[in-house]
Each structure stands twice: as C-alpha cells, then as structure tokens.
Amino acid sequence: MLGSVFTTLVLSTLATAHIILTYPGWRGNNLIENDTFPYGMQWMYPCGGMGTSRNRTYWPTLGGAIAFQPGWFQGHDKATLYVNLGFGTDGPDNGPKNMSFPMVPPFGLLGPSKGPYPGTVCLPQVPLPANTVMSPGDNATIQVVELAQHGAALYSCVDITFVEPGDPRVGHVNETNCFNSTDLGFSDIYTITTKEVGAIVNATTTSAAAIVNSIRSSGGAWMGYVPLVLGAFWLLI
Ligand SMILES: *[C@@H]1O[C@H](CO)[C@@H](O)[C@H](O)[C@H]1NC(C)=O
Ligand SMILES: *[C@@H]1O[C@H](CO)[C@@H](O)[C@H](O)[C@H]1NC(C)=O
Ligand SMILES: *[C@@H]1O[C@H](CO)[C@@H](O)[C@H](O)[C@H]1NC(C)=O
Ligand SMILES: *[C@@H]1O[C@H](CO)[C@@H](O)[C@H](O)[C@H]1NC(C)=O
Ligand SMILES: *[C@@H]1O[C@H](CO)[C@@H](O)[C@H](O)[C@H]1NC(C)=O
Ligand SMILES: *[C@@H]1O[C@H](CO)[C@@H](O)[C@H](O)[C@H]1NC(C)=O
Ligand SMILES: *[C@@H]1O[C@H](CO)[C@@H](O)[C@H](O)[C@H]1NC(C)=O
C-alpha cells in the first residue's frame, strides 16, 4: 500500500516536470512518459529523447535570443540552468559530436513556489561559445539543461542553421516572445574552493579524537545520526 502511494507520488512529480523552448523553437514535444521512457523523456541526455530535427530553425551567426519556460517543476522551487552549443552534424543521429560548449555561465532559477509554475525566461542576446566563429549555413544544436535540486537534469534542444544577423528567416524577437515573468527570480552560482588541489590537510583537526570530542560536546544529539542498523543493534544489547 505504502509502495503504491509512493510510486504514484513519484510518477506525478516526474510527469509534471518539464521545460519548453519557446524561442527559437524546439525539436518537438518531449513531455512524454510511456513504456519506452518510464521516467519521462526529458531526463534523457542529451536532448530529452528527441532525435535531430530535419526542420532546423535559423539563428544569427553573432548569437541571439533564447527563451524557455522552465516549467512545472513540482517540489522544486530552485533549479540551475545551463545553455550549451553543440557544433555540426558529425555526431550520433547526424547531430553534434557533443554538447560541451557553454554559451552563458550557469545560473540559478528561483521559482515562485514548490508547486508547479508557469512563466518564461528570455535571454535576449546569448553569444556564441567563447572563441568560436560561425558562418552562414553552418549547423549546430542549442541545448538547455535544467538541473534539479536532486541532481538529475531535464534536457531540451533546438537544431539551428546559422544565418547573417538581420536575415528575415530569423524569428522576430519582441516582448511577446522574449520576456521574463515577474514571478521568476535568478541567482548567481559561485564556486567557493574549500581545499586547493594538492593542499596538505591538517591531520589534527580531522583526527578521530577531534570527531569524538565534537560528538561529546554535542551532548547526545549525535544519536540521531547513528545509522539505523547500528541504532537497532544498540537497542538489542
Ligand atoms: C519541428 O517539427 C516538430 C514536429 O512537427 C515540431 O514539433 C517542432 O516544433 C518543429 N521545430 C521547429 C524548430 O520548427
Ligand atoms: C514513447 O514515446 C516516444 C515519443 O513519442 C515514441 O518514440 C515511443 O515509441 C513511445 N513508446 C511506446 C512504448 O509507446
Ligand atoms: C566536441 O565537439 C567539438 C566540435 O564538434 C570537437 O572539435 C571535439 O573534438 C569534440 N570533443 C570530443 C571529446 O569529442
Ligand atoms: C545543415 O542542415 C541542413 C538541414 O538538415 C542540410 O540541408 C545542410 O546540408 C546542413 N549543412 C551542413 C553544412 O551540414
Ligand atoms: C512579436 O512577434 C511575433 C512573431 O513575429 C508576432 O506574432 C507578434 O504579434 C509580435 N508582437 C508584438 C507586440 O509586436
Ligand atoms: C531575464 O533575466 C536574465 C537574468 O537576470 C537577464 O539576463 C535577461 O536579460 C532578462 N531578459 C529580459 C528580456 O529582460
Ligand atoms: C593544525 O591544526 C592545529 C589545531 O587546530 C593548529 O594549532 C595548527 O596551527 C594547524 N597547523 C596548520 C599547518 O594549519
């Protein structure tokens, strides 16, 4: 009984998690959960289970707008967003070899609640990855990754062909398709080094004696951290 309640909850959480690329488009609807993708398509690397598009969309050689709805992320009011580019068509499924080229630094997304929420994020001028130059006619794939707080990630992609800036085939960007919803917030992600590579760790502070002392000084509260099996064993003796 408990098992089935748990399963239902997990399935409903996954079923509502999604990200939709609204500009410049997407490979297609991958908000699908079926026997092939029992956890939902969007969790599949690199593009949420969607194959490379034949219907590429056009995007400027100097970069342009990317808009998405980070979605109904039930139970997760925070996420981390990545926007990457993969070059060419020499990889699997006539897509890129990899998606290893970040276009913007990763950033934190703050949702309005732990419940599902609508809302749009638009980055109006996403540049090409550092030190890259594209020519009109080159193909590439833009990947948006939404990293959940539990460490799994949702993926959605759009396949593009580069064109000169101002080309009429580039979708018009305006306040209808490129805006930030007021109920979504953003945060910076900093990496704070706590131990340099190769640094000598001070053994005295991490010795067993120090750990025992810190347990003693916590006055018994540490019992809560005894692993369950060990705790049960202690009850028996
Ligand atoms: C490509 O075609 C698919 C399937 O019809 C559609 O869902 C998707 O939005 C299209 N993508 C673009 C970029 O036009
Ligand atoms: C699940 O959906 C995907 C995408 O539409 C499809 O390719 C696949 O065949 C489906 N699997 C089943 C078992 O229906
Ligand atoms: C990743 O893709 C780039 C561009 O296609 C390519 O130059 C590079 O060798 C690839 N890296 C790996 C590890 O395959
Ligand atoms: C880019 O993709 C289009 C559509 O799939 C294809 O016709 C074209 O040959 C590709 N261009 C290159 C340079 O691979
Ligand atoms: C924005 O551009 C889209 C697509 O061209 C168009 O449908 C929409 O009416 C435009 N909105 C405004 C406010 O101009
Ligand atoms: C939306 O917010 C992001 C992050 O602060 C910002 O980079 C971007 O320019 C904003 N988009 C618009 C359309 O103002
Ligand atoms: C190591 O830790 C001890 C106790 O905290 C301290 O007295 C000592 O200065 C530390 N040594 C180094 C090299 O940091």
Automatic annotation (TrEMBL):
Chief subcellular location equals: membrane
Q: What is the lineage of its organism?
A: Eukaryota, Fungi, Dikarya, Ascomycota, Pezizomycotina
Which Pfam families does this one have? Answer: BIM1-like_dom (PF20238)
Q: Where are the transmembrane segments?
A: none
Q: Domain Copper acquisition factor BIM1-like, which positions?
A: 17-183
Q: Where is the signal peptide?
A: 1-17
Source organism of this protein record: Apiospora phragmitis
Record-given protein name: Copper acquisition factor BIM1-like domain-containing protein
Question: Where in or outside the cell?
Answer: Cell membrane
InterPro entries per the record? BIM1-like, BIM1-like_dom
> Which UniProt key words apply to this protein?
Cell membrane, Glycoprotein, GPI-anchor, Lipoprotein, Membrane, Signal
Q: How does it sit in the membrane?
A: Lipid-anchor; GPI-anchor
